[in-house]
Amino acid sequence: MNVVAQKTVCIALVGNPNCGKTTILNQLANAHEAVGNYPRVTVTPREYRLVHRGRAIRLVDLPGIYSMSSKSPEERAGRDFIHLEKPDVVVNILDAGNLDRSLFLTTQLIEMDVPRVHVLNMADEARKKGISINLPELVSMLGGPVVEAVATTGEGLTEVLDLALALADGETEHRVAVGYDSHLEQAIATVEAIVANLHPAEMTARQCRWLAIKLLEGDEEMLTREGEHAELIAQVNVERETFYRRHGERCEHAMAGGRYGFIRGLLMEVRTVAATEAGGLELDDLFLHRFAGLPILMGLMWLMFEATFQFGGIPADWIKSGVDLLTGTLREVLPQSMVRDLVLDGVLAGVGGTIVFLPNVVILFFFLALFSETGYIARAAFLLDRVMHVFGLHGKALIPLVMGYGCNVPAIMATRTIESERSRIITALVTPFMCCSARLPLLMLFAGAFFTSQAGTVVFVMYVLSIATALGSSVLLSKTLLRSKSEPFVMELPPYRMPTLRAVLYHMWENATGFLQKVGSVILVGSIVIWFLQAFPRDIQYSQDYAASRGQAEAIADESERTATLDRLRMAESGEKLERSYLGRVGIAVSPLFAPLGFGWKDTVAILTGIVAKEAVVASYAVLYAESKESAGLQRAIAASMPPLQAFAFMVFVLLYLPCLSTIGALRREAGSWRWAGLSVIYSLGLAWGLALLIVRVGGLLI
Amino acid sequence: MARLMDEKPEVFEAPATLADLRPGQTGQVLRLPDEPIGNNLAALGLVRGAIVTLGRKAPLGDPRTYSLLGYQLSLRETEARLVTIKIC
Questions:
Q1: Which of A273, A303, A330 is the last residue of a domain?
Q2: Is residue A332 included in any domain, yes or no?
Q3: Which of A180, A352, B16, B65 gives a 20 to 30 Å CA spacing to A35?
Q4: In this prediction, does ipTM exceed 0.95?
Q5: Residue A93: is its pLDDT beyond 90?
Q6: Which of A71, A97, A378 faces B39 most closely, judged by CB atoms?
């Protein structure tokens, strides 16, 4: 067979959320060693390229949607792809156990007149429910091939591709139409005639009918597109108003009713149900229980949090030791040079410092996969929506916010479970305010240094402030930048399902590789830049001859005193080096900005290094004050550097300012553009600065 | 719809909505709201004539689950209030 001569076949996967579309895609992609990319932007759907029976296939995964209107970004993306890119075949995935609703999307595909293969997925589940389908009859009623499939085992999927290729090669399917009641049909006929007149020869009869239906449904996109034809629009409006007067119902609602009527009739013909039982919802009596429901949710959240950060800490330590070992070995092996410093202090410190989070990310996604595969995540959203709604958030925002207390990076990745783009972006933007564990060392250091007796309370206040800021910001965002007229909580509660190991592992693997890719790009570049700023210029005029002082110190007889003096010298030297480096100079240059807050240049440098990773703030202080990180000396030195009020303001500032580099990278990825990441940077900086100033000023008046 | 002869004459009152259902109670959809949300609900099967049963309310009172067409849909009271029904 000649592969080269034939063009690539474009197949689009279309289906409701929870219909198993992703599993089918993964199965097809895995079985064919496909190459995929994963942009989390709804307008550029995920796609894979694979080869089946010697034919090149481009497999495009459209977002899970219930309808082909132009209302939500997801629906628009799906419709535009089918309409504008004209895939050769649409594979319509249906939940065999819930055809009543799944087929609604199919009726719209029928009207769009695209070649379709219908997949009755989860056929095993449907058989268990006692549902049997007369396939030949269904094929003739839907006007396209129908395949029973089980995505989790791969049953029926080869056939799907075979049938899709046959359709792409022009095997003609017979055409069916969804009929409406007489008044609607009259209206359609009138509008269709005008459409046909306006677009002679360029549209088929079926395309005219589809456009007529869309116009009568009041589809804004289509009304705008046909806006130049005043006569057509006027007629559409007349028909819509007449219908509304006659029936007390909008055209589009009656059309939906007509489609559901078509489905009811169709299912009466082809479906027999042996035993009727609700099936699988008994668990809701437990998980959605009036009293037990919320405690169970909290327990599961706690378990996920503990496992991610406690259990995940063990392999994280191994990775850390591995990185340390590698760093140590390279320090020995490589000759002293700038390249060595770049590799060790720049690349390994930055990338190594982030890659430590890999176990946490993997464990987090194990739980997230488990929750979403079983259907629990929808329950969690259901339980908490009442609370989250007050703050303009979706019920599902709880998980990212809780995870944010551990580490913002996986937390922002967890926003993927939120379908609505607007809610997802709001959640991703406010998650960095959650006080992650990397900020804890700084808070502990300052609380210990300034508020010895109330250290615990002060840290607790910081935690409360962080969630308050996150929630407050989401109220602000949902009322300003990301305002939308109505975003209702209309969510399906899918039946409980047993997760398959394969799906869970795939989910984990996919997210782990995504994380590693990010480490390899944003983090790598960022670390190198910061290292450069820290390490240059090389020729520093030190205030004293450290080499000579070291020589004198070596001569001290008492061993502990000798070590202490050497340590102090080493710290003093690196502190001075940092001060004279570009980073130090930038710190000194920028410090006037922080002068109103009472922060000195050392604090400014610490703040700047914290952009790479928040842990770095304490490390920088250690270097700047030439004291070791855990020493009481560092606490004393810091306590002497500013009054408690400024210290409190500084803690608030560090709590809220700039997400770290990894978080900014994650934000860009999840929100889909630098625009949102940039907004997050500006907003958090402004907020942190303003709040710190407020504390200093108001506190100054009170004290 | 023709009224049955044996039905008692009703006192005029605001029509019932999905929000008025008690757990386990069933209603039939009479009318969808004209607001854009009506289209979302229609796409999910809440069309005129659809039979809907209230499953349960969330522990904090809202949202609530409805079963229709063999699946479970969760709505907030705000949206449920917009769908006019006849309680069966």
A1: A273
A2: no
A3: A352
A4: no
A5: yes
A6: A71
